[in-house]
Design a protein that fits this description.
single chain; alpha+beta; two-stranded antiparallel ribbon
Length: 233
C-alpha cells in the first residue's frame, strides 16, 4: 500500500509537468515566433514480484508476476514547423520564410536564437528585441537599420533539441549553420501552437488527474482499515 502511494506520487508529478507544459503553450498562442514544446513519457520497466508463501508449508518461493511503478518523463522536443505569417506593416518587423533563427546577444554576452522578428530601434539606430537585446549580423556586430539589414540567420542539425530559456529565446550547444535568409519585412511569424490539440491534451491530463485521485482515495481507505481496524485484532 505504501508502494502504491509512491507510484501515485510519481504519476501525479508527471501529470503536473505535462499540465504546466500545455498551459505554457496555450498562454503563448499569440506570441510571435513561439514554438510549441511537447513532452515525452514512457512506462517504467516492470519489476518481478515474489513471496515465500508457496508450497504445503507456506515457505516456498511463489512468483506473483510483474508490477509497473508508473511513468517517467523522457524529455522534450520543440515543434519547429513554421507558424502563419501576419502582415503588420511595421518597418521593424521581420519574418523568416525559410529555416533558421535570428541571432541575438543576451545580457551575459552569450548568443541566443529566436524566430520572433518583432524588433525595434535603439538610440543608435540598431535593431533590438522588445527586451532590448541586440540583434546580431553575420560578423557578430549589432545590425544597423538600413535598406538590406545583414541579420545573422542560422539553423541547427537538431533544432528540436534547442533549450527554451523563455520569451521565445533558445540556446544550444550545437554549432550554428549560417543560412541565406529569405525575409519578409513588415510581417511577423505567428505561434505554431495548435490550440485545439492543446485543449484536448489539457482535458486528457485533467481526466488522468481524476483517475489518480480516485486510486489515492481507495488506497487511503485501505490504509485506514489496515491501521485502525486490523490493528485492533
Amino acid at each position: 500500500m505504501i508502494r502504491g502511494l509512491d507510484t501515485l506520487r510519481q504519476n501525479i508529478d508527471v501529470l503536473l509537468k505535462r499540465q504546466e507544459n500545455t498551459s505554457s503553450n496555450i498562454a503563448n498562442v499569440n506570441t510571435p515566433g513561439y514554438q510549441a514544446k511537447k513532452l515525452f513519457q514512457s512506462t517504467l520497466k516492470a519489476v518481478r514480484f515474489q513471496n515465500y508463501q508457496g508450497g504445503p508449508n507456506v515457505d516456498q518461493r511463489n512468483e506473483i508476476g510483474d508490477f509497473t511503478f508508473g511513468n517517467q518523463l523522457d524529455g522534450a522536443s520543440l515543434n519547429t514547423e513554421k507558424g502563419a505569417f501576419k502582415q503588420t506593416g511595421r518597418s521593424t518587423d521581420f519574418a523568416i520564410e525559410n529555416n533558421g533563427y535570428f541571432t541575438v546577444q543576451m545580457p551575459n554576452g552569450t548568443a541566443a536564437y529566436t524566430r520572433n522578428g518583432n524588433f525595434k530601434l535603439n538610440a543608435q539606430n540598431q535593431y533590438v528585441t522588445q527586451e532590448g537585446y541586440q540583434v546580431l549580423s553575420n560578423a557578430g556586430n549589432p545590425v544597423t537599420a538600413g535598406q538590406n539589414p545583414d541579420f545573422a540567420v542560422v539553423s541547427f542539425n537538431n533544432p528540436q533539441q534547442l533549450e527554451n530559456v523563455g520569451n521565445t529565446y533558445y540556446t544550444t550547444g550545437q554549432t550554428p549553420i549560417t543560412e541565406v535568409p529569405r525575409l519578409l519585412n513588415g510581417y511577423l511569424e505567428q505561434s505554431n501552437v495548435a490550440t485545439a490539440d492543446e485543449m484536448v491534451s489539457l482535458i486528457q491530463t485533467g481526466r488522468e488527474f481524476e483517475a489518480n485521485q480516485k486510486v489515492l482515495s481507495t488506497t487511503n481507505e485501505t490504509l485506514n482499515k489496515a491501521v485502525n481496524e486490523l490493528g485492533k485484532i
